[in-house]
């Protein structure tokens, strides 16, 4: 089994040493030196709270490393939670509850594309998504995929192999409308062409 390369950043030297010992005790993980952080598959960040400095660090790491983040913190507000998620934080551990096993589990989950969060934070995220759907997306004819029902219908028929005229006939649209829908999707999502749009929608579970 290939070891998961982990970078560690803690605001306190003693905490850094303690977390490092947890990570080094696990054979499935390898702790990188600070100079090798760019090679990390997962980044572990520990901070008392999400200060402006910590948020700046998370944003910088998201841009430079692109690796998922396991965040260890004492407290986090709903606004900070949303900011953290934007910065690729996929797992959050309360600092008082951290053990070697829990930390390893979170790191491995992050490396595998999953996430670990306390139930109350999952609830906060779900409530935010519900508000987003109700207050922003639905009034604008969108859903959480960022596509309108019309766009989803067109993409689904494209995936079935229909050309523009056939899609227009199936949906009772003009060919110009179908072309505008396709252009809107590819332009907004920065997709190269129709095939790329269909592949993107299929991979993302939109259709």
TrEMBL record:
InterPro entries assigned to the protein according to its UniProt record, in alphabetical order: Sig_transdc_resp-reg_C-effctor (IPR016032), Tscrpt_reg_LuxR_C (IPR000792)
GO BP annotations listed: regulation of DNA-templated transcription
Pfam families xref list: GerE (PF00196)
Gene Ontology MF terms in the entry: DNA binding
Source superkingdom: Bacteria
SMART domains for the chain: HTH_LUXR
Domain HTH luxR-type: 140-205
Keyword field: DNA-binding, Transcription, Transcription regulation
Protein name per the record: DNA-binding NarL/FixJ family response regulator
Organism, scientific name: Actinoplanes digitatis
């Amino acid at each position: 089994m290939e070891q998961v390369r982990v970078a560690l950043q803690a605001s306190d030297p003693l905490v850094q040493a303690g977390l490092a010992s947890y990570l080094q005790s696990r054979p499935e993980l390898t702790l990188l030196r600070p100079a090798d952080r760019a090679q990390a598959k997962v980044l572990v960040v520990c901070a008392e709270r999400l200060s402006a400095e910590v948020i700046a660090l998370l944003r910088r790491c998201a841009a430079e490393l692109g690796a998922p983040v396991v965040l260890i913190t004492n407290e986090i507000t709903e606004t900070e939670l949303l900011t953290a998620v934007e910065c690729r934080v996929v797992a959050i551990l309360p600092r008082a509850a951290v053990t070697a096993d829990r930390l390893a589990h979170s790191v491995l989950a992050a490396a595998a594309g999953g996430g670990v969060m306390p139930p109350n934070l999952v609830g906060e995220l779900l409530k935010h998504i519900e508000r987003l759907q109700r207050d922003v997306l639905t009034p604008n004819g969108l859903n959480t995929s960022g596509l309108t029902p019309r766009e989803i219908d067109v993409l689904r028929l494209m995936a079935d192999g229909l050309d523009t005229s056939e899609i227009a006939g199936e949906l009772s649209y003009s060919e110009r409308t179908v072309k505008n829908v396709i252009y809107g999707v590819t332009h907004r999502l920065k997709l190269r062409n129709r095939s790329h749009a269909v592949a993107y929608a299929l991979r993302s579970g939109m259709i």
